[in-house]
What does this fold into?
Amino acid sequence: MRRILITGAGRGIGLGLVHRLVADGHQVYGTARSEQGRSAILAAGAAGAVDLDLEHDASISACAAAIGEQTDAIDTLINNAGMNSLALGASRDTQGPLQADKSVVLKQIEINAIGPMLLTQRVHPLLTAGTNPIVLNLSSQLGSMVVGGKLPRDVGYNASKSVMNMVTVMSATADPQVSYVAIHPGWVQSDMGGPAAAVTVEDSVQGIVTVLDGLTIADTGRFLTWEGDDHPW
Ligand SMILES: NC(=O)c1ccc[n+]([C@@H]2O[C@H](COP(=O)([O-])OP(=O)(O)OC[C@H]3O[C@@H](n4cnc5c(N)ncnc54)[C@H](OP(=O)(O)O)[C@@H]3O)[C@@H](O)[C@H]2O)c1
It folds into this structure.
């Protein structure tokens, strides 16, 4: 049994992870911004559901404090929450590197990369009190120079996942106590991926959990796919 904290757990891949990891017998805590999301997390059998908006520092601190009141340790932090520029009101025509707004790009980096980094900092004492502690960062193939650099649609999103990848590797270098791994979940049929996506939430979750179950400190600093292969940077 592991004690697992999952961000953005009220829908999509995050909620799929809650269902699966609860069924596997783990003690799961989920975060969501809305009451509806927190209800979905609790309905899936989680031990707790906490408010978290990664846009706001105070919310990140309050979330870490609330989790600390519910458990003495976290064995796994899954930084799953994320958004693209469409969620910030940008259109397909205004997302690219030659058109994008500074504020939209910075907001995506703030929410997708810096917020998860700060949450990791704030729950770090809980992680070091855990067993085989792991931080699994839901990155994307679009954060890869090799893949994302050739798909210049949403510069804020791709750049934010590149930042998340850099934070993952630097954390791995800086901290020998916790295993930091970035993972690409596939192109998934969530609200973000859309109905035409190649992979169901259930199959992505199955792959992510299989990867997660095998992770140790020896894997720190890796970037993996949901199928367990090394992803190019
Ligand atoms: N779907 C894909 O094809 C795909 C591909 C590669 C990577 N990913 C990554 O996988 C992760 C999960 O994506 P998904 O497909 O499940 O997306 P989704 O269905 O759109 O869900 C996004 C989740 O992130 C949360 N979130 C958004 N902004 C937030 C904020 N400011 N603070 C806290 N939580 C916030 C949402 O919470 P609310 O319900 O409160 O909005 C929601 O729970 C993301 O990091 C995404 O970038 C997805």
User: Anything to note?
Assistant: The CA atoms of residues 136 and 212 lie 8 Å apart. The beta strands are 3-6, 27-32, 48-51, 76-79, 134-138, 179-184, 223-225. The chain has a mean pLDDT of 97.
